[in-house]
């Protein structure tokens, strides 16, 4: 099995965790080398993982992630955005609190 995990730069852990929770992700782990140092957080939804980092050297961003889900309409409704039908997918785009763009998609209808 091969998998890729995007690392996104964040500033506020709690704000980011609440935002990613709206996409159905939960915190999987939290790492801090020493108290007061930047945090590195893993969030997971099903088998999909995203790493969120406060470290200045990680992911200078903002970045773009393409996220496949079973039903983009549910996610779009939760986030208050409009879906769009493309030849390759039905998708929508949202931006996290740190300017990272997340395109959420499901296979095209029909």
UniProtKB/TrEMBL annotation:
- Which domain of life does the UniProt lineage start with? Bacteria
Among SUPFAM superfamilies, the record links this protein to: Glyoxalase/Bleomycin resistance protein/Dihydroxybiphenyl dioxygenase (SSF54593)
Q: Does the keyword Membrane apply?
A: no
Q: Where does the secretion signal sit in this chain? A: none
Keyword line: Antibiotic resistance
Q: Which Gene3D superfamilies match?
A: 2,3-Dihydroxybiphenyl 1,2-Dioxygenase, domain 1
User: Where do the VOC domain residues begin and end?
Assistant: 1-110
Q: Which family does it belong to?
A: Belongs to the bleomycin resistance protein family.
Identification of the protein by name: Bleomycin resistance protein
Q: Species name for this entry? A: Aeromicrobium alkaliterrae
């Amino acid at each position: 099995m091969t998998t890729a995990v995007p690392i996104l730069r964040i500033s506020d852990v709690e704000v980011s965790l609440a935002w990613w929770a709206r996409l159905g992700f939960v915190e999987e782990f939290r790492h801090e080398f020493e108290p007061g140092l930047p945090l590195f957080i893993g969030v997971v939804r099903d088998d999909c993982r995203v790493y969120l980092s406060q470290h200045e050297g990680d992911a200078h961003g903002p970045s773009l992630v393409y996220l496949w889900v079973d039903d983009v309409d549910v996610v779009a409704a939760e986030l208050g955005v409009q879906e769009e039908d493309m030849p390759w997918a039905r998708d929508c785009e949202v931006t996290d609190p740190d300017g990272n763009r997340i395109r959420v998609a499901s296979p095209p209808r029909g």
